[in-house]
Amino acid sequence: MGEWSRRIGEVGEEIVGEFLDLIGWGDSQRNLTLSCMKGQRHGNGERTRRTHGIDYLFSYESQLSNRTLDHLVISVKYSLEPYPANPNSRFKDHFLDLAKTMECFKGSEIRQSSNSQFSGIDHARDIGVLFWLSNDTSGTDDVIQRVASVRNLDQYNYDSIYVIDNKRVSFIYDVIKYLSVNRPGSEIEFFYPRTGRNYNPINKESSGKVLPVEFINSGVLPLKLGNGDDSKTFVVAVTDGFHRDHLKRLMGLAYEITSDFAKDTLILFPDFDRIHHENQVSEAKSSFKDKRFTENVRVSSYRTNFRNTSNE
User: Fold this and answer.
1) How high is the pLDDT of residue 199?
2) What radius of gyration, in Å, describes the C-alpha atoms of the chain?
3) Euclidean distance between the first and final Cα of the chain, in Å?
4) What per-residue confidence (pLDDT) applies to 139?
């Protein structure tokens, strides 16, 4: 049983490793061992803890917060079984295990070594990323919503922890694969919006290959496509289903963002159906005065099949 459990864990790490490559986190350090500085507090009551394991560690200079270094301490929990019917207890175990690791990571030599690889940094943030994935596809893949009510997660000292389930991984994966197939030859980059904290025009990039951790479990994913002719396409993909009013808000967001760089805009929903929704798209476009903008807005589904072809 122990060998089988270990093999499941290895498969999970391999899947997450491929996903990290997809989002620009592929240069992560892997399978690190961290000394436990609070053995009794982090133990199980009977046994003092000596070490923590870090599945992946990725450090990068944030493009959303000026002169800030983000250390991502990544934990992978992968199972062949579906998510539990009542996931709270299992989730809490996974979450607190990472929280304990984060508490010891703060004063570790590993962190100091990672800091030394960067210059011009004023502030470093320690951020946990918990991938809780299931190989089973028969049930719901949205476990985050089901554990939102879990309490007593703040008993350890950590800055923030992002939780990623099947739904969030599938969303980002499906969007990037859709763009790779439907916009062949285009350079796909993640878009870095102005935040008020990335104010230095010398250091700030408007897009890049590294997904900011702030977007990892967001329901909105902004991207920029380079089309090979110096023109750019702004892409915004969402997890929510298609609705005319939602489309209008996304078009308004795109209009504010893209006026200085984009040739056209592509808005992606999971369930857009051209037959059922095309008139609602036309209605949403008619509410904008700038027709030069709306004539270059395209709407599609990143889960396209033969019944629902793109209208790009």
Assistant:
1) 67
2) 21
3) 51
4) 57
